[in-house]
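Human: We require from you a standard protein entry with sequence in single-letter code and fold as tokens, and nothing else.

Assistant:
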Amino acid sequence: MKMKRKNLLLLLAGAFVVMIAFFVLTTAMSAPTTVNITAPKTKASIPEGIAVHLVLVSTDQFYGYSNNLNEGKLYSIDHGNTVRNYLPDMKKRLGDKMVVLIKQTRGATYESTIHLLDEMTINKIQQYAIVDLTEEEQIKFNVKNLVKICLLKPYYNTYSA
């Protein structure tokens, strides 16, 4: 009877050691990774001829233009005339020094922003930034009115206990 208890204790101790080793290895393998983001210390001005503006208008559309806001065009993020066609064309036209400025309206979503950032990597765009809309863009896309409407919207408590 005593021999069986010793075997049982050895078996439990071995299982405990294996479990500890497993947990140590799995936590070491799943170490979090970080992304290094470099931000400029001062605001730099971008020359007119190399900037490409992508304004996220809705979940699946963006407005793209280079120099003149009124000469831009509405593009689809996923279907037909896409960002994957637009960026290489602009890169051929403007060269490798092209800077892409990504801007968001109220209709933009987190998913569409991440999709555009992925496209920067896919198309090997070296210089890009997420920036605020200019005053002209706010007027064109009616962003100021949207902000006023959102602020004036009454708050209703939809939580019921």
About this structure: Helices lie at 2-29, 83-94, 110-122, 135-140, 143-152. Residues 145-161 have pLDDT under 50 and may be disordered. The radius of gyration is 27 Å.
